[in-house]
Write a sequence for this structure.
């Protein structure tokens, strides 16, 4: 029995690739068993790939559905928040309107109270002037009451000016000269407060002002006559001299 020497054949990778590329297609056509074997391998390998792709597609689809659901929930939540903010705005608006109505009512009440106070003051001034005229109330008390109203309403300080007229230019004989003087913002305002004013009283007031301006070397910027009882001739003379005439202190717009 003879033993034949076997030769070992070495095929490189390039040669193997060439053989497979050239020979394998023909062998697959000619050999059914080889074709089934290779098909089984390919199906097995690509089944996992298709399965993986299907899983990825399923995950992506699930993520898409989650995103759509999240957007829907987010939009619904924003809508609820907007509706809530709208309700809050409407409520705030109603509160503001209510506060505005209350403020207007309080303002109107204050105006009514102010009108009542003014009417009461005018009533007191009228009664006081009648009392002073008939000797029931002192003229000084009446004047002090009007001064108090002036100082409360504007407010200003009414100072009593007292100087003796030695030459008797005011009353025709030496006597005390009295004036109510208001100094505000560097301006001099002389206020003559009397329960009643006649034409002769206006003449005397003019002389008292002349005395004051000469004595103090200052010019009166305004002259106010405050009296609830001013006869027509006194009124006409006062206007001619540039004096302002008011029946009540509340009638004065500003000082």
């Amino acid at each position: 029995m003879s033993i034949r020497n076997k030769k070992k054949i070495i095929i490189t990778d390039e040669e193997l690739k060439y053989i497979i590329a050239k020979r394998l297609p023909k062998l697959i056509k000619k050999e059914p068993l080889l074709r089934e074997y290779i098909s089984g391998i390919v199906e097995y390998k690509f089944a996992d790939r298709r399965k993986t792709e299907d899983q990825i597609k399923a995950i992506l689809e699930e993520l898409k559905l989650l995103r759509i659901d999240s957007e829907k929930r987010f939009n619904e939540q924003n809508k609820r928040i907007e509706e809530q903010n709208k309700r809050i705005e409407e409520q705030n608006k109603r509160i503001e309107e209510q506060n505005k109505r209350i403020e207007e009512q309080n303002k109107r009440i204050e105006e009514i109270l102010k009108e009542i106070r003014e009417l009461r003051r005018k009533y007191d001034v009228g009664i006081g002037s009648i009392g002073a005229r008939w000797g029931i109330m002192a003229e000084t008390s009446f004047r002090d009451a009007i001064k108090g109203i002036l100082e409360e309403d504007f407010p200003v300080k009414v100072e009593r000016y007292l100087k003796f007229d030695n030459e008797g230019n005011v009353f025709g004989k030496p006597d005390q000269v009295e004036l109510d003087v208001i100094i505000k913002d560097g301006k001099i305002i002389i206020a003559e407060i009397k329960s009643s004013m006649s034409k002769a009283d206006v003449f005397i007031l003019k002389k008292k002002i002349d005395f004051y301006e000469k004595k103090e070397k200052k010019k009166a910027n305004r002259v106010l006559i405050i009296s609830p009882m001013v006869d027509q001739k006194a009124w006409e003379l006062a206007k001619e001299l540039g004096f302002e005439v008011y029946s009540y202190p509340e009638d004065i717009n500003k000082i």
In short: The radius of gyration is 57 Å. The chain has five helices and five strands. The helical segments are 13-30, 32-133, 139-153, 199-216, 232-241.
